[in-house]
Amino acid sequence: MQLALSAEDAEFRDEMREFFTTKVPQEIRDAVRDQRELTKDQFVTSMRILNEHGLAVPNWPVEWGGRDWSALRRHIWHEEMQRAFVPAPLAFNATMIGPVIAQFGSQELKERFLPATANLDIWWSQGFSEPDAGSDLASLRTTAVRDGDEYVVNGQKTWTTLGQYGDWIFNLVRTDPEAKKQAGISMLLIDMTSPGVEVRPIELIDGGHEVNEVWFSDVRVPVENLVGEENRAWDYAKFLLGNERVGVAPVGATKRLLAQAKQWAGPLLDDPLVAARIAELENELLALELTALRVVAHSADGKPHPASSVLKLKGTELQQAVTELVVDLAGPASLASGAGDDSDLPWWTRRSTPIYLNFRKASIYGGSNEVQRQIIARTILGL
Ligand SMILES: Cc1cc2nc3c(=O)[nH]c(=O)nc-3n(C[C@H](O)[C@H](O)[C@H](O)COP(=O)(O)OP(=O)(O)OC[C@H]3O[C@@H](n4cnc5c(N)ncnc54)[C@H](O)[C@@H]3O)c2cc1C
Fold first, then answer.
1. 170-197: per-residue pLDDT in tens?
2. Which end of the chain is least crowded, N or C, by CB within 10 Å?
């Protein structure tokens, strides 16, 4: 594999670097750098600036705002964005529902939703999981019954990330209760302001609000909001989940955190055990980055490669390992999460344990890591 960039690609990298470090407001990039929670407005502002310059949805078909970039350029775009602490385009929009509508939606749905999705005029939520349908997604029970030109939706979704900001939700619903589990599922786009939709917060252990339950009681959804064909959504969901897995392998962000950790380590870097631990993580991240490049390069027609499961598994393991390293570097100060900004302790030490705890989620969402191992065993290793 050729590791040095060509002159053209190096020029492209410089352009991206210049854009990301000058066009996205500093206060948003500072919030990402200091791992503070972003407001809805900060996400929207940042994605709109990217979209205005054709940099929000390069993975989409060109017709809908995508860029005909090589896999390497897409990687450079992503790397430079993360290096500059620019928030990534909202995944629900950019890597989940956008590509599904572009691939499987009617022309009418594409025109109606894709420009607004790229510009974050619509904030999408993901309504897949239910209390008894997480890993076993095909067990979902939320129903949609056709009544004239509408579906009537009843049921409950759970773990809906940032659903409190959601304008619309892409929802998996059961439209044929008689068919084999996978064969009776459809995808509906639902306006979250429709009567009968209720978003209920799930309170996290630290008191934060990141996930929600979404309840549907006799919600009427126009038939034209169906994506693709009725009862065929299992294929669309698999397509979306493959993209989601690539998206949750946060190589750039983990590299950035590791680089910050090296600075924070200071004299601890002279400890051979700390130095060896950092070197090992750097090597593993490099190996993962090269794998990510190979996977992107081999994804045909926008379809995710099965190795996306490897990226999800390894990417989240390394992300968790780096958050754990930061806790160890902080030492006892990592327990002082209640200390305020007037404390003498550096902010990163105080934030290290909440961040470590929060990222326990990474091996669960986007399909749990145990399930990724099953996919790798079956589809890649043929076991
Ligand atoms: C923070 C967070 C945010 C999320 N955001 C969203 C969202 O926005 N929208 C959405 O739709 N969903 C979301 N999810 C749901 C997520 O996709 C599910 O939690 C996940 O798929 C696991 O399902 P489950 O929680 O029902 O666990 P279960 O499927 O009940 O699994 C329980 C345990 O059994 C293991 N297990 C299950 N099946 C197998 C198997 N076949 N082989 C080996 N082990 C197995 C699992 O790995 C796990 O350890 C989110 C989850 C979290 C934690």
1. 999 999 999 999 999 999 999 999 999 9
2. N
